[in-house]
Write a structure and sequence with these properties.
Length: about 700
């Protein structure tokens, strides 16, 4: 496809534009993780500028990922004034380093207003690209973002650190298996992206969607997703036209968007790419979210990336398909045809199980925010309890390891469908478990807890780091071994016995599993403030420090930022609810009650014998619900005021979760009850029926 990657300064373009020696030098940095040679920066910058200008670019920007969870950029023109006019110039210095304001981004106390300097640094492992918007073309250079004092202020630096940590420990283990050629192991990710689309006209009439990204009020329509007719259904023409444009934009950017389909809820859809190195996949997922939102507006729609934009139907997640690949072409989580005999595979599998069990709280923390709190535990989203699904074949092998003998692997075989004209289908070694948070799906693990609005950086930092730690502990033991096979068998057996508790192949939604998980000692952390505390636990800080992923200051900064974001989110939602209640819903209810009262007076004025019991009953119900609505609005105002007056950040977050959130639910219940009895022509907000089914 000529379209694919046409807006990317990829290795093919670099090979064409750069001198051979410079290209080889840069390629070694990209492929092998070697230090960047600063002497080549001017040559690369000149070639990059020439390529960009040929395609209409007038500006460049250092494109980075601050701890807001979205991307940031500052555009500078290639323009440089001269005595006779101006030139288009772009130096190596401008390519390598930029200086955005570090105090205006979340820093968790690492930077203050009077300490504003920060730096962006060129990440040459992620290719530069052109973004086309209307008639404007901008050269975007992926960068890292750090403070004047050297701390990471973004989501990219710790991710790259975690990838280096994983590589170092995985290479140690591979060398123990006799692989002396391997020099690098890279984590790979394919991030499935779920999203909702709503008509733009409805969005603009919903203050809650505009301010909070989700419906804070809204009675469920008579039909939701219970007929199961939207999932994989025929894609509507308007949506298909939108998807076509999304794909074209992403393909130009080199994003391997491959799969698209209707998701479970009406108005919900999914886009999935092919696997890539984790840092590239992270950049590309940010591009995916930006393109989904930008293109939707061109089609008079709005793309919603909130985890739970509509109550009562499926929420939106982001399934993080994670694996490890060596530079000699191995997928380290590929079981092969006889996984019980594949000692290398079993070693990496057991390291993953050990890591997930040991650091379950950290994994839960990596997916904690206010939006995901509404989603986890229902409608195909996993619960807050971390467990691992392996399927029957691998679970059986783990049992054999615990017993001290691995003799066989249950065969998958073929399925006979019973129709002669249909092919005999090969049966996979594992079923799929849509309720499991961390599921093995053939040759990778699918971490299903991520929310749809998340940067995938945070969860993958955690996964890379904790598995690096497990591999380190394995390597520390086995490198001292005098009988590798025997000591490996013993290590795997001890690990399986200790961490088998985290393996669960059943229904994660059942009450029985909650009870069973408690018996096994598995943590269950439904609350975001409680989950975030796992980030600053002693165990977490030790593992981050051991692998140079986060310093103690960087860990605490991120904790403060995430806690603050949680409070700010609920504060915005509460204020929006109060505003909508006082200025829209309560006045509407009063107006409608007045109309009903006038109807009663008008009818009885004609004749006292006419039956107005229906109107009177409706008026009484309206009056009761209106009084409850007013009382609940005042209660939310009081709870919000009390919470905002709490100085301690931990206690404030807990108060928002326990008190403000509870009052928000009560206010919503009364408003939704009013919606069900107020005539449609009076109701001021687009309804669920309109938003979910009109596209």
């Amino acid at each position: 496809m000529e379209m694919f990657g046409q807006n990317v300064f990829n290795q093919s373009v670099m090979r064409d534009k750069l001198p051979k020696a410079v290209f080889k030098n840069l390629k070694k940095t990209i492929d092998e993780g070697l230090p960047l040679d600063p002497s080549i920066a001017d040559v690369v910058a000149a070639a990059m500028k020439e390529w960009a200008v040929e395609r209409g670019a007038t500006h460049f920007t250092h494109w980075f990922q601050p701890m807001t969870g979205i991307t940031a950029e500052k555009h500078d023109a290639f323009l440089s004034p001269t005595e006779s006019g101006a030139l288009l110039e772009f130096s190596g210095k401008e390519l390598v380093k930029g200086e955005p304001d570090a105090s205006s981004f979340p820093s968790g106390g690492l930077r203050a207003t009077f300490e504003a300097r920060g730096y962006t640094a060129w990440d040459c492992t992620s290719p530069a690209f052109l973004r086309e918007e209307a008639d404007v073309v901008t050269l975007c250079i992926p960068t890292a973002f750090c403070s004047y004092t050297g701390e990471a202020l973004d989501k990219k630096v710790p991710l790259l650190r975690s990838m280096e940590a994983l590589s170092a420990q995985a290479v140690r283990v591979l060398k123990l298996f006799g692989n002396t050629d391997v020099t690098r192991v890279t984590s790979t990710v394919g991030a499935e992206q779920e999203y909702f689309l709503v008509d733009k006209s409805f969005y603009l009439k919903r203050p809650d969607l505009m301010m909070a990204g989700r419906t804070l009020f809204g009675a469920m329509s008579s039909k939701g997703q219970e007929m199961e007719d939207h999932y994989f259904g025929s894609i509507k023409e308007r949506v298909l036209s939108y998807m076509k444009e999304v794909n074209e934009e992403l393909w130009k950017l080199g994003v391997t968007a491959k799969t698209q389909h209707n998701e479970v809820a009406p108005g919900q859809f999914e886009l999935a790419p092919i696997f890539e190195n984790t840092n590239i996949a992270t950049d590309h997922n940010q591009m995916v979210m930006e393109v989904l939102k930008r293109v939707a507006l061109r089609h008079d729609m709005v793309c919603l990336l909130h985890e739970k934009p509509f109550a009562g139907v499926n929420g939106s997640g982001k399934h993080n398909n994670w694996s490890m690949s060596s530079n000699d072409g191995q997928n380290l989580l590929e079981p092969g045809h006889t996984p019980h005999e594949n000692a290398q595979f079993l070693t990496f599998l057991m390291a993953t199980i050990k890591a997930v069990d040991t650091y379950a709280g950290l994994l839960r923390c990596s997916c904690a925010n206010a939006g995901n709190e509404y989603r986890l535990g229902a409608n195909e989203a996993p619960p807050a309890i971390i467990s691992v699904f392996l399927g029957e074949q691998l679970a059986d092998i783990i049992d054999q390891i615990v017993a001290g003998v691995t003799k066989s692997s249950s065969l998958s075989g073929h399925m006979d469908i019973g129709v002669n004209t249909l092919p005999s289908l090969p049966k996979d070694a594992t079923d799929r478990n849509r309720t499991s948070p961390f599921a093995f799906t053939g040759n990778k693990f699918e971490f299903r807890m991520l929310g749809s609005s998340f940067s995938i950086s945070g969860p993958n930092i955690i996964i890379n780091t904790i598995i690096a730690q497990a591999l380190k502990e394995f390597a520390d033991v086995l490198e001292k071994s005098t009988n590798f096979e025997a000591d490996l068998d013993q290590l795997l057996q001890e690990t399986a016995k200790k961490h088998k508790r985290v393996i669960f192949n059943g229904n994660n939604y059942s009450d029985e599993w909650v009870q069973e998980a408690a018996k096994r000692g598995l943590p269950n952390i439904p609350s975001t403030p409680d989950a975030l505390k796992e980030l600053v636990s002693k165990e977490a800080q030790e593992v981050f420090a051991a692998h140079n992923v986060f310093s103690e200051k960087e860990v605490h900064a991120r904790y403060e930022i995430m806690l603050e974001q949680y409070v700010k989110t609920l504060n915005i939602e509460a204020l929006t609810m109060i505003d909508m209640a006082n200025h829209s819903i309560i006045p509407t209810a009063i107006e409608y009650a007045t109309t009903v009262a006038s109807s009663i007076n008008a009818v009885t004025a004609v004749s006292s014998k006419l039956d107005v019991s229906t109107q009177k009953g409706l008026l009484e119900e309206l009056s009761d619900k209106l009084a409850a609505m007013s009382a609940n609005t005042k209660a939310l105002e009081k709870a919000l005021e009390d919470a905002l007056n709490i100085a301690d950040a931990d206690k404030q977050a807990a108060a928002f979760r326990a008190n403000v959130f509870a009052k928000m639910l009560e206010l919503r219940a009364t408003a939704d009850a009013l919606e069900k009895i107020i005539a449609a022509k009076y109701w001021p907000l687009p309804t669920y029926r309109e938003m979910l089914f009109v596209l």
